[in-house]
Design a protein that fits this description.
By secondary structure, the chain is of the alpha+beta class. The chain has a single domain, classed as Uncharacterised protein family Atu4866 (Lipocalin). The chain contains one helix and eight strands, in the order αββββββββ. It has an eight-stranded antiparallel barrel. The longest helix has 15 residues. The radius of gyration is 15 Å and the shape is globular.
Amino acid sequence: MKRFFVAVVVFILAACGSKLDGTYKDEMGVSSYTFKSGKVIMSTMGVGQEMDYKIEDDKLKIISPQGTLVMNLLKDGSIEGPMVIKLTKRSE
């Protein structure tokens, strides 16, 4: 029982500090979000901009000069963006 409790605590602590890593794209390949070293590069049609982001609960908050974009982190590991656009992790 003690091992189970320790494993659960370690998992919860790891999840609290989790960061996104890699590239997430929409189904059409129009936009991509590349997470690396605590930053995100948001690209649309080949034009990219680097921004800060933070994760709070199941929300991804991308901070830009125009304001904060809030997206949902889904249980399947994908990201739900504006207008219910689904971003999935892609290997490059």
